[in-house]
TrEMBL record:
Gene Ontology molecular function: any one: symporter activity
PROSITE patterns in the cross-refs: MFS, SUGAR_TRANSPORT_1, SUGAR_TRANSPORT_2
Name assigned to this protein: Major facilitator superfamily (MFS) profile domain-containing protein
Sequence ranges assigned to domain Major facilitator superfamily (MFS) profile in this UniProt record: 1-441
Membrane topology of the entry: Multi-pass membrane protein
Principal subcellular localization: membrane
Protein keywords: Membrane, Sugar transport, Symport, Transmembrane, Transmembrane helix, Transport
Annotated compartments: Membrane
Source organism: Urochloa decumbens
Signal peptide: none
GO cellular component, one term: membrane
Length: 484
């Protein structure tokens, strides 16, 4: 998915030349993947509960493989659009299942870092896409963009096969009554046999199974209608707060404008004064490097300083970067062609280019990875797969709206005005997370629901009362100790 996003930003330049597409077709091509991802994300929850987390990951990769092959062989715009739609369904599946699997397989102490790994892989894919654009741009026009898009089939094939070398989620195994297999996985995760047994008992309790239940006895199953009813029709107060928090972080994720920058960075760099196509593509490679490096920083920090501080600090950087980017692009636009403003334009060009990178860095160090980590860990086990699928659907919908309207938006209110708008929306996102999203750092998945049971004000206080502090952790040294 990351490779597709990165490579499409450059491929669109060549597709426009080869297939003679207009701006409307370019916007549709950019956003249709996310519209089709809605289909994948909304069905992936049920599929993963039925077939397992690993099989769902493999299924997602297989679908994306088919879409990449179609795009790489597309003789015309219609076939290219169909291939992008097929790939979009695979993206929807993958974006839902990857963070769920990572959260369920990880220990509480490393869950933030491991849940962020899908985002680092997406960023690495974006970087590889930008590099592919730069290298394959030298091919003849008819082959260049097709090679760029078709190469996305290779990592998909590797994932579809390689995922079966990984263990299944112990929480899904418990839900199926396969407790002995779940214990084998937990022994690999935990330091001692006693810890594995304790975690197995906690997972059984969360799944609605008695601690002494015999192997082969599945957890009580909620029908799809039952899950939707508990999520949306008659949620308990904690579930209602979880739903608002999990869906809210996905809603605001792309309203920061990150997809506009990643997909349309060549246009932004052109607007900022970089004229050569090779220089534009080289600059986009720099964006990919920045995104990858700062997500690596986020992985090091998310389990050390917590979700809230990282997310809010990230938004502070995003707001400042977007405001400066909007200012720089506005000055450039108004000084173009006016000789007496060339000095102002030079500093504005430098400011605009620099703030594209600071914006990507700020997003990647917090909002990007924390969104996926947070939304995958807050839902209780019985609701996790389908609750996460709804969050991903909202994420893809907002992504599609931004990517399919950005060109029209900046033509209507100027490109600088578009980024001022994103800055304002980021301020709203900061207020939302500050007031409604409590800290979940270091708490076992089976205890996270309790974090949301103390009212809306718990988030603003920075956490929850001491009664629900992380089991076995002392405030003095942050180290887990056995409890009597």
């Amino acid at each position: 998915m990351g490779y597709d996003t990165g490579v499409m930003s450059g491929a669109m330049l060549f597709i426009k030349d080869d297939l003679k597409t207009n701006d409307t077709q370019v916007q549709v091509l950019a956003g249709i993947l996310n519209i089709c991802a809605l289909v994948g994300s909304l069905t992936a929850g049920r599929v993963s509960d039925w077939a397992g987390r690993r099989r769902t990951i493999s299924f997602a990769a297989t679908i994306f493989f088919a879409g990449s092959v179609l795009m790489g062989l597309a003789p015309n715009f219609a076939t290219l659009l169909v291939g992008r739609c097929v790939a979009g369904v695979g993206v929807g599946y993958a974006l839902m299942i990857a963070p769920v699997y990572a959260a369920e397989i990880a220990s509480a102490e490393s869950r933030g870092a491991l849940s962020s790994l899908p985002d680092i892989c997406i960023s690495l894919g974006i970087l590889l896409g930008y590099v592919a654009n730069f290298l394959l741009a030298k091919l003849p026009l008819v082959y260049g963009w097709r090679a760029m898009l078709g190469l996305g089939a290779l990592p998909s094939a590797a994932l579809a096969i390689g995922v079966f070398a990984m263990p299944e989620s112990p929480r899904w195994l418990v839900m199926q009554g396969r407790t002995e297999e779940a214990l084998v996985v937990l022994r690999r995760e935990c330091g001692t046999e006693d810890e594995a047994q304790v975690r197995l008992a906690e997972i059984k309790a969360a799944a609605g199974l008695p601690a002494d239940s015999a192997p082969g006895v599945p957890a009580p199953k909620s029908s799809g209608k039952g899950v939707w009813k508990e999520l949306f029709l008659h949620p308990t107060p904690p579930v209602r707060r979880i739903l608002v928090a999990a869906l809210g972080v996905h809603f605001f994720n792309h309203l920061t404008g990150i997809e506009a920058v990643l997909l349309y960075s060549p246009r932004i760099f052109k607007a900022a004064g970089i004229a050569s196509r090779n220089e534009v593509l080289a600059a986009t490679v720099g964006v990919g490097v920045t995104k990858t490096v700062f997500i690596l920083v986020a992985i090091l920090l998310v389990d050390r300083i917590g979700r809230r501080r990282l997310y809010l600090a990230s938004l502070a950087g995003i707001i400042a970067s977007l405001a400066c980017l909007g200012l720089g692009l506005t000055v450039i636009e108004h000084s173009t062609g006016a000789s007496d403003h060339h000095g102002a334009a030079r500093w504005a060009v430098a400011l605009s280019i620099a703030t594209v990178f600071t914006f990507v860095a700020s997003f990647s160090v917090g909002v990007g990875p924390v969104t996926w980590t947070y939304s995958s860990e807050v839902f209780p086990l019985r609701l996790r797969a389908q609750g996460t699928s709804v969050g991903v659907a909202i994420n893809r919908l907002i992504n599609a709206i931004v990517s399919m309207t950005f060109v029209s938006l900046y033509k209507a209110i100027t490109i600088g005005g578009a980024f001022f708008l994103f800055a304002g929306l980021s301020v709203v996102a900061a207020a939302f997370f500050y007031f409604l999203c409590p800290e979940t750092q270091g708490r076992p998945l089976e205890e996270v629901e309790e974090v949301f049971s103390h009212g809306w004000c718990a988030a603003r206080r920075g956490g929850v009362p001491p009664a629900v502090e992380m089991r076995g952790t002392t405030a003095a040294d942050g180290k887990t100790k056995a409890q009597p």
